[in-house]
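Allow me, if you will, to draw on your knowledge of protein folds for a short while. I have a record of one protein: its chain in single-letter code and its fold written as discrete structure tokens. The full record is reproduced below for your convenience:
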Amino acid sequence: MAQLPKFLIADDPVTDPENEYIFHTQAPRFFAKRVEEDEDTAYIDIVHEIDNVEEFFKNAPEKKEELLGQLEDWYYSYMEWLDDDGEEEEEEDEE
């Protein structure tokens, strides 16, 4: 069986169209999402744990912050990819 990517996007446009989740597929497994406090403040936060994240990182809490940083970088790269892909489709439609 092929190994899953480290991060996956999960959404439910029918019952929860406002939210998009990031699934961390490796231990510790969890769901996170981008949380917007206001127009100027947004961050990635864990919203549901499958594995106990605090217990997993109890001897190295800095590793948790490192992982969340990687997740945030990945998510914003994904968002840029979506924007770029949308621009390419618009250009193709104009031709």
About this structure: The radius of gyration is 16 Å. The chain has two helices and four strands. The mean pLDDT is 90. The CA atoms of residues 38 and 59 lie 34 Å apart.
